[in-house]
TrEMBL record:
InterPro entries per record: ABC_transporter_permease, MetI-like, MetI-like_sf
Keyword set, alphabetical order: Cell membrane, Membrane, Transmembrane, Transmembrane helix, Transport
Chief place of localization: membrane
Species assigned in the record: Devosia rhodophyticola
UniProt key word Transport: yes
Domain of life: Bacteria
Compartment(s) of residence: Cell membrane
CDD domains per record: TM_PBP2 (cd06261)
Protein name: Sugar ABC transporter permease
Segments traversing the membrane: 7-27, 73-95, 107-127, 155-178, 213-236, 264-289
Length: 296
Protein backbone atom coordinates (compact mmCIF):
# COMPACT_ATOMS: atom_id res chain seq x y z
CA UNK A 1 0.00 0.00 0.00
CA UNK A 2 2.84 2.34 0.91
CA UNK A 3 4.63 1.60 -2.37
CA UNK A 4 1.46 2.33 -4.31
CA UNK A 5 1.03 5.69 -2.57
CA UNK A 6 4.64 6.58 -3.28
CA UNK A 7 4.17 5.67 -6.93
CA UNK A 8 1.02 7.80 -7.22
CA UNK A 9 2.73 10.71 -5.45
CA UNK A 10 5.76 10.45 -7.78
CA UNK A 11 3.56 10.38 -10.88
CA UNK A 12 1.58 13.39 -9.70
CA UNK A 13 4.81 15.24 -8.90
CA UNK A 14 6.33 14.75 -12.34
CA UNK A 15 3.06 15.08 -14.27
CA UNK A 16 3.39 18.89 -14.75
CA UNK A 17 6.94 18.46 -16.01
CA UNK A 18 5.89 15.72 -18.43
CA UNK A 19 2.96 17.84 -19.63
CA UNK A 20 5.19 20.88 -20.26
CA UNK A 21 7.82 18.75 -21.99
CA UNK A 22 5.17 17.14 -24.19
CA UNK A 23 3.69 20.49 -25.15
CA UNK A 24 7.04 22.15 -25.82
CA UNK A 25 8.86 19.19 -27.44
CA UNK A 26 6.59 16.33 -28.51
CA UNK A 27 3.61 18.32 -29.80
CA UNK A 28 5.70 20.53 -32.18
CA UNK A 29 7.30 17.41 -33.68
CA UNK A 30 3.89 15.88 -34.32
CA UNK A 31 2.67 19.15 -35.83
CA UNK A 32 5.69 19.34 -38.14
CA UNK A 33 5.05 15.77 -39.29
CA UNK A 34 1.42 16.69 -40.02
CA UNK A 35 2.35 19.84 -41.93
CA UNK A 36 4.89 17.97 -44.04
CA UNK A 37 2.09 15.84 -45.47
CA UNK A 38 0.02 18.85 -46.59
CA UNK A 39 0.34 21.57 -49.20
CA UNK A 40 0.32 24.23 -46.52
CA UNK A 41 0.45 27.69 -48.03
CA UNK A 42 0.08 30.69 -45.71
CA UNK A 43 -1.77 32.67 -48.40
CA UNK A 44 -4.23 29.91 -49.28
CA UNK A 45 -7.24 28.78 -47.27
CA UNK A 46 -7.19 25.37 -48.91
CA UNK A 47 -4.48 23.15 -47.40
CA UNK A 48 -4.99 19.71 -49.00
CA UNK A 49 -3.36 16.49 -47.88
CA UNK A 50 -0.71 15.47 -50.45
CA UNK A 51 1.03 12.58 -48.70
CA UNK A 52 4.73 12.28 -49.52
CA UNK A 53 4.66 14.73 -52.42
CA UNK A 54 6.78 17.28 -50.52
CA UNK A 55 9.47 14.68 -49.86
CA UNK A 56 9.42 13.59 -53.50
CA UNK A 57 9.94 17.19 -54.56
CA UNK A 58 12.87 17.49 -52.13
CA UNK A 59 14.69 14.73 -53.99
CA UNK A 60 14.83 16.88 -57.13
CA UNK A 61 15.25 20.27 -55.46
CA UNK A 62 18.69 21.61 -56.41
CA UNK A 63 18.66 24.24 -53.66
CA UNK A 64 17.83 21.66 -50.99
CA UNK A 65 20.55 19.35 -52.27
CA UNK A 66 23.02 22.23 -52.07
CA UNK A 67 21.84 23.05 -48.54
CA UNK A 68 22.15 19.42 -47.45
CA UNK A 69 25.63 19.13 -48.94
CA UNK A 70 26.84 22.36 -47.32
CA UNK A 71 25.34 21.43 -43.97
CA UNK A 72 26.99 18.00 -44.09
CA UNK A 73 30.38 19.50 -45.03
CA UNK A 74 30.12 21.99 -42.15
CA UNK A 75 29.02 19.32 -39.66
CA UNK A 76 31.74 16.81 -40.49
CA UNK A 77 34.36 19.56 -40.88
CA UNK A 78 33.55 20.81 -37.38
CA UNK A 79 33.68 17.22 -36.13
CA UNK A 80 37.13 16.54 -37.58
CA UNK A 81 38.52 19.73 -36.08
CA UNK A 82 36.77 19.80 -32.71
CA UNK A 83 37.09 16.23 -31.42
CA UNK A 84 40.87 15.65 -31.77
CA UNK A 85 41.73 19.23 -30.80
CA UNK A 86 39.46 19.09 -27.74
CA UNK A 87 41.07 15.84 -26.57
CA UNK A 88 44.58 17.26 -26.97
CA UNK A 89 43.74 20.51 -25.16
CA UNK A 90 41.99 18.63 -22.35
CA UNK A 91 45.04 16.39 -21.94
CA UNK A 92 47.37 19.40 -21.83
CA UNK A 93 45.20 21.17 -19.25
CA UNK A 94 44.83 18.06 -17.09
CA UNK A 95 48.41 16.79 -17.17
CA UNK A 96 50.43 19.98 -17.69
CA UNK A 97 48.56 22.61 -15.67
CA UNK A 98 47.78 20.92 -12.35
CA UNK A 99 47.97 24.19 -10.51
CA UNK A 100 45.80 27.06 -9.41
CA UNK A 101 45.81 28.30 -13.03
CA UNK A 102 44.01 25.18 -14.36
CA UNK A 103 40.60 26.73 -13.61
CA UNK A 104 41.60 29.87 -15.48
CA UNK A 105 42.52 27.86 -18.59
CA UNK A 106 39.28 25.86 -18.42
CA UNK A 107 37.20 29.04 -18.11
CA UNK A 108 39.04 30.76 -20.95
CA UNK A 109 38.48 27.85 -23.33
CA UNK A 110 34.82 27.48 -22.32
CA UNK A 111 33.91 31.17 -22.80
CA UNK A 112 33.30 30.89 -26.60
CA UNK A 113 30.62 28.27 -25.93
CA UNK A 114 28.54 30.62 -23.77
CA UNK A 115 29.03 33.78 -25.82
CA UNK A 116 25.94 34.81 -27.80
CA UNK A 117 26.12 33.59 -31.40
CA UNK A 118 25.39 36.89 -33.14
CA UNK A 119 28.03 39.05 -31.37
CA UNK A 120 30.57 36.25 -31.80
CA UNK A 121 29.76 35.96 -35.50
CA UNK A 122 30.05 39.73 -35.91
CA UNK A 123 33.50 39.65 -34.30
CA UNK A 124 34.60 36.86 -36.63
CA UNK A 125 33.15 38.75 -39.59
CA UNK A 126 35.58 41.55 -38.77
CA UNK A 127 38.43 39.02 -38.45
CA UNK A 128 37.61 37.59 -41.89
CA UNK A 129 37.17 41.01 -43.52
CA UNK A 130 39.11 41.10 -46.80
CA UNK A 131 40.42 44.65 -46.39
CA UNK A 132 40.66 45.36 -42.66
CA UNK A 133 40.58 41.90 -41.09
CA UNK A 134 43.53 40.78 -38.94
CA UNK A 135 43.51 37.31 -40.53
CA UNK A 136 44.58 38.63 -43.93
CA UNK A 137 47.08 40.91 -42.18
CA UNK A 138 48.58 37.83 -40.52
CA UNK A 139 48.69 35.92 -43.81
CA UNK A 140 50.45 38.83 -45.50
CA UNK A 141 53.37 38.37 -43.09
CA UNK A 142 53.96 34.99 -44.73
CA UNK A 143 53.61 36.42 -48.23
CA UNK A 144 50.06 35.15 -48.79
CA UNK A 145 47.76 37.47 -50.72
CA UNK A 146 44.54 38.72 -49.07
CA UNK A 147 41.66 36.29 -49.39
CA UNK A 148 37.97 37.10 -49.90
CA UNK A 149 36.91 34.94 -46.96
CA UNK A 150 33.30 36.06 -46.87
CA UNK A 151 32.55 36.42 -50.59
CA UNK A 152 34.10 33.33 -52.15
CA UNK A 153 31.69 30.36 -51.70
CA UNK A 154 34.43 27.89 -50.77
CA UNK A 155 36.18 30.26 -48.38
CA UNK A 156 32.83 31.23 -46.86
CA UNK A 157 32.22 27.56 -46.11
CA UNK A 158 35.64 27.30 -44.47
CA UNK A 159 34.95 30.46 -42.46
CA UNK A 160 31.73 28.99 -41.09
CA UNK A 161 33.54 25.76 -40.15
CA UNK A 162 36.22 27.74 -38.30
CA UNK A 163 33.64 29.77 -36.38
CA UNK A 164 31.54 26.71 -35.47
CA UNK A 165 34.64 24.80 -34.36
CA UNK A 166 35.74 27.72 -32.19
CA UNK A 167 32.34 27.78 -30.48
CA UNK A 168 32.06 23.99 -30.04
CA UNK A 169 35.58 23.51 -28.69
CA UNK A 170 34.96 24.77 -25.15
CA UNK A 171 32.12 22.34 -24.42
CA UNK A 172 34.06 19.41 -25.88
CA UNK A 173 37.14 20.23 -23.79
CA UNK A 174 35.02 20.42 -20.64
CA UNK A 175 33.51 16.98 -21.30
CA UNK A 176 36.94 15.48 -21.99
CA UNK A 177 38.29 16.98 -18.76
CA UNK A 178 35.55 15.19 -16.84
CA UNK A 179 36.62 11.99 -18.57
CA UNK A 180 40.30 12.50 -17.75
CA UNK A 181 39.53 13.17 -14.09
CA UNK A 182 37.69 9.84 -13.84
CA UNK A 183 40.44 7.69 -15.35
CA UNK A 184 42.19 5.30 -12.99
CA UNK A 185 45.64 6.60 -11.99
CA UNK A 186 46.86 3.08 -11.23
CA UNK A 187 46.81 2.20 -14.95
CA UNK A 188 49.12 5.11 -15.76
CA UNK A 189 51.40 4.31 -12.85
CA UNK A 190 51.68 0.72 -14.07
CA UNK A 191 52.37 1.91 -17.61
CA UNK A 192 55.08 4.24 -16.30
CA UNK A 193 56.72 1.39 -14.39
CA UNK A 194 56.73 -0.62 -17.64
CA UNK A 195 58.66 2.20 -19.32
CA UNK A 196 55.83 3.75 -21.32
CA UNK A 197 56.31 7.38 -22.30
CA UNK A 198 53.66 10.07 -21.81
CA UNK A 199 52.67 9.88 -25.48
CA UNK A 200 52.44 6.07 -25.37
CA UNK A 201 50.22 6.23 -22.30
CA UNK A 202 48.02 8.81 -24.01
CA UNK A 203 47.77 6.79 -27.24
CA UNK A 204 47.30 3.31 -25.76
CA UNK A 205 45.41 4.16 -22.56
CA UNK A 206 43.69 7.56 -22.71
CA UNK A 207 42.24 7.31 -26.22
CA UNK A 208 40.74 3.78 -25.77
CA UNK A 209 39.44 4.53 -22.26
CA UNK A 210 37.85 7.78 -23.42
CA UNK A 211 36.00 6.15 -26.32
CA UNK A 212 32.53 6.68 -24.74
CA UNK A 213 33.39 10.36 -24.20
CA UNK A 214 34.63 10.64 -27.77
CA UNK A 215 31.42 9.09 -29.10
CA UNK A 216 29.28 11.47 -27.07
CA UNK A 217 31.31 14.54 -28.03
CA UNK A 218 31.31 13.49 -31.68
CA UNK A 219 27.56 12.99 -31.94
CA UNK A 220 26.77 16.11 -29.88
CA UNK A 221 29.05 18.13 -32.15
CA UNK A 222 27.47 16.70 -35.30
CA UNK A 223 23.91 17.30 -34.10
CA UNK A 224 24.73 20.89 -33.13
CA UNK A 225 26.55 21.56 -36.42
CA UNK A 226 23.67 20.18 -38.49
CA UNK A 227 21.49 22.89 -36.92
CA UNK A 228 23.88 25.68 -37.93
CA UNK A 229 22.07 28.90 -38.78
CA UNK A 230 23.13 32.13 -37.04
CA UNK A 231 26.78 31.73 -38.06
CA UNK A 232 25.81 31.40 -41.72
CA UNK A 233 23.24 34.19 -41.52
CA UNK A 234 25.82 36.67 -40.21
CA UNK A 235 28.99 35.55 -41.97
CA UNK A 236 28.07 34.23 -45.39
CA UNK A 237 26.27 37.17 -47.01
CA UNK A 238 26.52 37.70 -50.74
CA UNK A 239 27.90 40.77 -52.51
CA UNK A 240 24.52 42.54 -52.20
CA UNK A 241 24.36 41.85 -48.46
CA UNK A 242 21.67 39.16 -48.61
CA UNK A 243 22.23 37.01 -45.50
CA UNK A 244 23.45 33.46 -45.87
CA UNK A 245 23.40 33.36 -49.66
CA UNK A 246 27.05 32.30 -50.08
CA UNK A 247 26.51 29.19 -47.94
CA UNK A 248 23.01 27.73 -48.11
CA UNK A 249 22.21 25.40 -45.21
CA UNK A 250 19.10 23.41 -44.30
CA UNK A 251 17.79 25.63 -41.49
CA UNK A 252 18.23 28.78 -43.58
CA UNK A 253 16.50 27.08 -46.52
CA UNK A 254 13.61 26.12 -44.25
CA UNK A 255 13.15 29.70 -43.06
CA UNK A 256 13.33 31.03 -46.60
CA UNK A 257 10.65 28.61 -47.80
CA UNK A 258 8.46 29.49 -44.82
CA UNK A 259 8.65 33.28 -44.69
CA UNK A 260 9.65 34.21 -48.24
CA UNK A 261 7.96 31.55 -50.36
CA UNK A 262 5.14 30.86 -47.84
CA UNK A 263 5.55 27.10 -48.37
CA UNK A 264 5.12 25.94 -44.79
CA UNK A 265 4.42 22.32 -45.68
CA UNK A 266 7.50 22.08 -47.87
CA UNK A 267 9.67 23.66 -45.15
CA UNK A 268 8.19 21.19 -42.65
CA UNK A 269 9.34 18.30 -44.86
CA UNK A 270 12.87 19.73 -44.72
CA UNK A 271 12.59 19.84 -40.93
CA UNK A 272 11.55 16.19 -40.93
CA UNK A 273 14.61 15.27 -42.99
CA UNK A 274 16.81 17.14 -40.51
CA UNK A 275 15.08 15.35 -37.63
CA UNK A 276 15.73 11.97 -39.28
CA UNK A 277 19.42 12.83 -39.67
CA UNK A 278 19.67 13.75 -35.98
CA UNK A 279 17.86 10.56 -34.95
CA UNK A 280 20.18 8.43 -37.09
CA UNK A 281 23.25 10.05 -35.52
CA UNK A 282 21.82 9.51 -32.05
CA UNK A 283 21.04 5.87 -32.88
CA UNK A 284 24.62 5.35 -34.06
CA UNK A 285 25.91 6.79 -30.79
CA UNK A 286 23.82 4.45 -28.63
CA UNK A 287 24.64 1.47 -30.84
CA UNK A 288 28.37 2.04 -30.51
CA UNK A 289 28.13 2.57 -26.75
CA UNK A 290 26.04 -0.59 -26.38
CA UNK A 291 28.56 -2.53 -28.44
CA UNK A 292 31.40 -1.32 -26.22
CA UNK A 293 29.46 -2.22 -23.11
CA UNK A 294 28.74 -5.72 -24.44
CA UNK A 295 32.44 -6.33 -25.10
CA UNK A 296 33.24 -5.44 -21.51
Amino acid sequence: MLKRRRLIFSLLAIAPVIAIFGYVRIFPIGEILRLSLHKWDILSKNKPFIGLANFQELLGDRLFQEALLNTSIIAFGVLLITVPLAMILAALIFYRTRSRFAGFYETTIFIPHVVSLVPAAMAWKWIFDARLGPLNALLSVFGIEPQAWLFDPTLSLISVIILCSWQALGYAVLIYLVGFKNLSKSLYEAAKLDGASGFQSFWHLSIPLLKPITLYVGVATLVSAFNVYAQVYVLASDAQGAPGRQVRVIVLDMLENTFRNYRVGYAASEAVVLLVIVLILTFIQFSLLREKGARK
